UniProtKB/TrEMBL annotation:
Pfam family membership, one: S4_2
Protein name, as recorded: RNA-binding S4 domain-containing protein
SMART domains attached to this UniProt entry: S4
SUPFAM superfamilies tied to this protein: Alpha-L RNA-binding motif
This protein's UniProt keywords: RNA-binding
Chain ranges of the RNA-binding S4 domain: 18-79
Record flagged with keyword Transcription: no
Domain of life of the organism encoding this protein: Bacteria
Amino acid sequence: MPEPVEPFDVPVREESVIRLGQFLKLANLIESGSQAKEVVASGEVLVNGEVETRRGRQLAMGDVVRLGPQAARVADEATYDDGLPW
């Protein structure tokens, strides 16, 4: 089994609004909503180190979502706007 990797940051627009299924797709950990339903229901997804079986769970800034060896962290989009020319 591959070693878990450090989570990468995935910027989201609003605090406490994104749900687990949406985040999995946004982070490119899965390809579709139906795949999100399958992996979450089967207990393959961890949120902050604990198995999560609710696809609709609301995530907060800093939450780490892990699927297999990949991991993504919910990050504040505002921190990624600094220094951009647009």
